[in-house]
């Protein structure tokens, strides 16, 4: 009887956590690219101890990336609405993946030019940590 109660309690806790994550993701979609760039720049300033000159350059880069992501999200949404129940072809998925990787490579090169060696090393570690976090979250969703 106690085991059943504990199992039920754990399930309800997981459902609440999922609802919170969904709400947070929904709120992130509604943030303007300018606000998102500002938030990301402030987080990076705290993590990497950026100078004011670096902050300006990083903010411009983050704004450019945020606008690209927002445009891609709008395009995906309109494509999804226009092509109900049609999945992307393999060629389309490959094109999207290539575009995403090209953007990452360009961002990485620009960040390397903006940051000094120590800051860039920290930046790389942060990026790896974020990638692992996203992989873990992806596995949780698939279960």
Can you put this structure into words, describing what you see?
The chain has 143 residues and is mainly α. Helices cover 88% and strands 0% of the residues. α2 (33-48) crosses α3 (52-82) and α3 runs antiparallel to α4. The radius of gyration is 19 Å and the shape is globular.
Provide keyphrases for this structure:
0% strand; mainly alpha; 5 helices; 143 residues
Topology record:
Layout: H1 2-29, H2 33-48, H3 52-82, H4 90-114, H5 117-142
Helix pairs in contact: 2-3, 3-4
- Secondary structure tally: strands: 0
Oligomer: single chain
| Shape verdict | globular
Residue ranges: pLDDT <50 for 5 or more in a row?
none
How much of the residues is beta strand, in percent?
under 5%
Termini distance? Answer: 26 Å
H/E element string?
Answer: HHHHH
Structural class call reads mainly alpha
> How is the biggest beta sheet arranged?
none
Mean pLDDT: 81
Helix share of residues?
A: over 70%
Number of H- or I-type helical stretches: 5
Indicate the radius of gyration in whole angstroms: 19 Å
Quick structural summary:
This protein is mainly alpha-helical and 143 residues long.
């Amino acid at each position: 009887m106690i085991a059943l109660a504990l199992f039920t309690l754990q399930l309800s806790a997981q459902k609440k956590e999922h609802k919170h994550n969904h709400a947070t993701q929904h709120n992130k979609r509604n943030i303007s690219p300018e606000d998102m760039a500002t938030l990301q720049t402030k987080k990076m300033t705290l993590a990497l101890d950026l100078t004011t000159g670096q902050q300006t350059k990083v903010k411009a880069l983050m704004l450019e990336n945020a606008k690209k992501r927002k445009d891609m999200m709008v395009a995906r949404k309109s494509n999804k609405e226009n092509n109900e129940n049609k999945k992307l072809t393999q060629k389309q998925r490959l094109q999207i993946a290539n575009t995403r990787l090209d953007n990452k490579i360009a961002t990485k090169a620009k960040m390397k030019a903006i940051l000094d060696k120590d800051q860039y090393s920290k930046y790389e570690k942060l990026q790896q940590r974020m990638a692992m976090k996203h992989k873990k979250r992806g596995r949780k969703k698939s279960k």
